[in-house]
Task: inverse folding
């Protein structure tokens, strides 16, 4: 499938937030975790709007026919829709933005939570195998270099078979902001840190916010995982961090 066709399908199930006015606005693409699109991500979208950005909360599962229960049983366990496959959504949404008159498709910020962070990282790490492994026939690393100004990775999954620690991100990657949770019992903190350290060694600008008392999904007040503990204070801290990242890329 080409990126425009898949982008249209994704957009039908995604939600767009825009500042007042005609635009064009820079755009933050917000990618959910393995459990699917949840309401707390819309709060981050509103943060982007206050910073002068449009935001699109992308639903990667409904277009694939993946229900919330199926997501828990198959995506969260690594059996389906792994990061390299879902990375095609990034290229598809970039193509879709090119057809939206309210969007500045050359000023895009990628923000991913957990599985969404893995998705962003694999989109860069795939390199010459991008089209083959994503299934998006016209997916090219050059599109990322042309359009993306920065990335936020919040408690990203970076264990096997994620590619960043082994492969890096190739030429002309964007600056990265990251949030690591010190009490994360889902993805841990050591493997995300190792991936970020690889990017730093490769010369990327990498900013790390380490939250020693945070669990996985600490910013999701509807998280149904017993390993997650909601922390509204840390949620506010990360919203402010997101704002600073967007302002740095405006």
Result:
């Amino acid at each position: 499938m080409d990126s425009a066709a898949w982008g249209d399908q994704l957009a039908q199930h995604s939600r767009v937030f825009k500042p007042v006015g005609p635009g064009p606005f820079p755009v933050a693409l917000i990618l959910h975790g393995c459990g699917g699109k949840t309401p707390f991500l819309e709060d981050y979208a509103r943060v982007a709007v206050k910073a002068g950005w449009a935001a699109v909360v992308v639903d990667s599962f409904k277009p694939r026919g993946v229900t919330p229960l199926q997501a828990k049983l198959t995506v969260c366990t690594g059996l389906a829709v792994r990061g390299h496959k879902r990375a095609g959504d990034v290229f598809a949404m970039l193509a879709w933005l090119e057809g939206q008159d309210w969007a500045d498709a050359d000023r895009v910020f990628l923000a991913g939570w957990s599985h969404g962070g893995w998705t962003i990282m694999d989109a860069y790490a795939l390199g010459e195998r991008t089209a083959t492994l994503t299934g998006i026939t016209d997916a090219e690393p050059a599109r990322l270099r042309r359009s993306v100004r920065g990335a936020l990775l919040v408690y990203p999954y970076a264990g096997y078979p994620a590619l960043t620690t082994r492969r890096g991100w190739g030429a002309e990657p964007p600056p990265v902001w990251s949030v690591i949770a010190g009490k994360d019992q889902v993805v841990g903190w050591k493997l995300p840190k190792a991936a970020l350290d690889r990017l730093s060694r490769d010369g990327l600008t990498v900013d790390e916010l380490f939250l020693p008392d945070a669990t996985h999904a600490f910013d999701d007040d509807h998280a149904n995982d017993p390993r997650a503990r909601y922390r509204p204070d840390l949620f506010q801290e990360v919203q402010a961090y997101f704002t600073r990242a967007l302002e740095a890329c405006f």
